[in-house]
Design a protein that fits this description.
With 512 residues, the protein is an alpha+beta fold. Helices cover 34% and strands 17% of the residues. Strands 2, 3, 4, 8 and 11 form a 5-stranded mixed sheet that branches. A hairpin with a 5-residue loop joins strand 5 and strand 6. Helix 4 packs antiparallel against helix 6. The radius of gyration is 46 Å and the shape is elongated.
Length: 512
C-alpha cells in the first residue's frame, strides 16, 4: 500500500466494489463539489446476468415447439446436466430391456424355454437361454462385446440372425448419439468462459484528456484466446421521433473498432476503454444524470480456445448503478525477478480520481461560448472588419453630422475618403484610448481643434471612434451600430439643440 501511495499520491482511496446495494461512487469535479449518490437503490431486472446468462424466456410458441424436435441433438446439448444424465440412463435402460425382451420372445415362440429343449439332441436358437434373465445377459454380452462363450446364437435360427443385425445397427446409432451428446456437452466452450473474468463495476474517468467509460477483463488460464475480440452493446429503452417505443433498443458502443483496439492480446488483464465523444450514446451523460438513467451495458468477449480450436464466448453486463463516476482501476501488474505477476485480489478494486462532474456535451458547449478577452475567430474577425468599415466610413460620418458638414470638409472627405478610412482603421488596431488625433486630420481641422477648448472639440463621428478594440468586438454582435446613439447625459440631448450647434464657432460660420 505504501508503494501505491507513493505512485498515486496520498489522497487516493481504494473503494470496495462488493456492495450490498447499488450506487456509484462520486469523484470530485473541477469545482471541488462532488455529487453524492444514494447508497440504496432498488435493484431492477437485468437483461443479461453477471454470469452471462440471458434473462429471457420464450413463451406462447404454439405449434413452433416441433422445431425443437427437428434439431434433437442441439436440444439435448442445451439441456441441463441433470436432464442429460436422466435421458442417457433411461435411453440405455429402455433399449436393453426392449432388445432382451425380443430375444426372450424368440426363445418362447420356438419353445427353447421348455424342459425338453434342454435335451442334447435339440438345437435352440440361442444356446443356454432358459428365461428372461438369461436372455437379458445374452443381449448385454452381445451389445458390449464381452463374449463369455457360454451363450451364443446358432445357425438354426434365421430370425435370431436378423435380430442380431438389427441390434448391432441400433446399438451403434444410440452410442453415437448419446455419447456424442455427452462429449459435446462436456467439452463445451461455455466452460472455458468460466475462466474469463470481468470487473464487477465499470468506471468513468479521464484518460489522455478525454472522458472515457472503462472496464477490465482478464484470463485466468495460461492458454491463450486466439483472435480474441470484444464488443459492447447498450440496452436502453427509447422513443423514436415518430412516436414508436422501443423497449430494449440495442446500440453499439465503440471500443476501438476503427483503430483495432477491440482485437485483444489477452495475456494479462486489460482495461477496455470507450471514449465518450459526440458519436457516443453517453455524450450528454453527467454525474448527476447517472443516478436517474436506466440502461445496461452488455459486454461480449469472443475468441478461439487454443487447446480445442472451438469458439468461446463470455458475457457480462453493467447496469447504471454499477458505473462508478470518477474512479480508476487499481493496477494489478508487478515486475518480479524474471517474470510479471498478476495480483487478482485487486482485480475489482478502484480508487477515486478528480473527474469533471459535467457531461462532455456541457463541456463542449462551455468552451464554444465566445469570450471578450479571447482571440476572435477568423469569422468574427471578418465581421468585425466589416463593422469597422461601416462605422468609420465617411458616409457614416455624414449621417452622424446630419448631412450639414462644411463644404470644404465635404470636398476633403470626398477626395481623401479612402485615405481617411485607412487611417481610422490603423488607429483603432493600436488599442489607443482615442480613435484618432488632431495630427491625423487635415491642417485646417488641426488648427481648429488646437484653437478650441476641451469641451468644443470636434464631435463629428467621435463617439464611435473613442471605443477600444475590445468594445468594438463586443458591439459587433449588435444589428445596427451606425451611428451609435448618444448617451443620456450627452449635451446633444440635454440642451435640446441641433447637432451643428455643438460645433466650434469657426465651423459654424463655415457651415452657414
Amino acid at each position: 500500500m505504501a508503494a501505491l501511495r507513493r505512485k498515486f499520491g496520498e489522497d487516493y482511496q481504494v473503494v470496495s466494489t462488493h456492495r450490498a446495494g447499488g450506487g456509484g461512487g462520486g469523484g470530485g469535479g473541477d469545482e471541488g463539489g462532488g455529487f453524492s449518490v444514494p447508497a440504496a437503490k432498488k435493484k431492477r431486472q437485468r437483461f443479461v446476468e453477471k454470469n452471462g446468462r440471458c434473462n429471457v424466456q420464450h413463451g406462447n410458441l404454439g405449434g413452433e415447439t416441433s422445431r425443437y424436435l427437428s434439431d434433437l441433438f442441439t436440444t439435448l446439448v442445451d439441456l441441463k446436466w441433470r436432464w442429460n444424465l436422466l435421458i442417457f440412463i433411461l435411453t440405455y435402460t429402455v433399449a436393453w430391456l426392449v432388445m432382451a425382451s425380443m430375444w426372450w420372445v424368440i426363445a418362447y415362440i420356438r419353445g427353447d424355454l421348455q424342459q425338453h429343449a434342454r435335451d442334447a439332441s435339440y438345437t435352440p436358437c440361442v444356446a443356454n437361454v432358459y428365461n428372461f434373465p438369461s436372455a437379458f445377459l445374452f443381449f448385454i454380452e452381445t451389445e458390449a462385446t464381452i463374449g463369455y462363450g457360454y451363450r451364443y446364437i446358432t445357425e438354426k435360427c434365421p430370425e435370431g440372425i436378423i435380430l442380431f443385425l438389427f441390434q448391432s445397427l441400433l446399438g451403434s446409432i444410440v452410442d453415437a448419439f448419446l455419447i456424442g451428446c455427452m462429449f459435446i456437452k462436456m467439452s463445451q466452450p461455455k466452460k472455458r468462459a468460466e475462466t474469463l473474468m470481468f470487473s464487477q463495476d465499470a468506471v468513468v474517468s479521464q484518460r489522455d484528456g478525454r472522458l472515457c467509460l472503462m472496464f477490465r477483463v482478464g484470463n485466468l488460464r495460461n492458454s491463450h484466446m486466439v483472435s480474441a475480440q470484444i464488443r459492447c452493446k447498450l440496452i436502453k429503452s427509447r422513443q423514436t421521433p415518430e412516436g414508436e417505443f422501443l423497449p430494449l433498443d440495442q446500440c453499439e458502443l465503440d471500443v476501438g473498432f476503427g483503430t483495432g483496439a477491440d482485437q485483444l492480446f489477452l495475456v494479462s488483464p486489460l482495461t477496455i476503454c470507450h471514449e465518450i465523444n459526440p458519436k457516443s450514446p453517453f455524450f450528454d451523460l453527467s454525474q448527476r444524470s447517472l443516478t436517474s438513467e436506466q440502461f445496461e451495458i452488455v459486454v461480449i468477449l469472443e475468441g478461439i480456445v487454443e487447446t480445442t480450436g472451438m469458439t468461446c464466448q463470455a458475457r457480462t453486463s453493467y447496469t447504471e448503478d454499477e458505473v462508478l463516476w470518477g474512479h480508476r482501476f487499481l493496477p494489478v501488474m508487478s515486475l518480479e525477478e524474471g517474470f510479471f505477476r498478476v495480483d487478482y485480489s485487486q482485480f475489482h478494486s478502484t480508487f477515486e480520481v478528480p473527474t469533471p462532474a459535467y457531461s462532455v456535451k456541457e463541456h463542449e458547449e462551455k468552451n464554444s461560448l465566445p469570450s471578450p478577452m479571447s482571440t476572435p475567430t477568423p469569422a468574427l474577425t471578418e465581421s468585425q472588419s466589416a463593422w469597422r468599415d461601416r462605422v468609420f466610413s465617411v458616409d457614416c460620418i455624414k449621417t452622424a453630422a446630419g448631412g450639414r458638414l462644411p463644404s470644404k470638409l465635404q470636398r476633403i472627405s470626398s477626395s481623401g475618403k479612402e485615405d481617411l478610412q485607412r487611417k481610422v482603421l490603423m488607429l483603432t488596431s493600436q488599442h489607443s484610448e482615442k480613435a484618432c488625433s488632431t495630427g491625423d486630420l487635415p491642417l485646417k481641422l488641426q488648427r481648429l481643434g488646437s484653437s478650441s477648448g476641451p469641451d468644443d472639440s470636434l464631435k463629428v463621428g467621435v463617439e464611435p471612434m473613442t471605443q477600444s478594440t475590445g468594445d468594438l468586438y463586443q458591439h459587433s454582435l449588435m444589428p445596427t451600430l451606425c451611428p451609435p446613439q448618444p448617451p443620456a447625459h450627452s449635451p446633444l440631448l440635454s440642451a435640446g439643440r441641433r447637432p451643428e450647434d455643438n460645433l466650434p464657432a469657426k465651423l459654424r460660420k463655415m457651415n452657414r
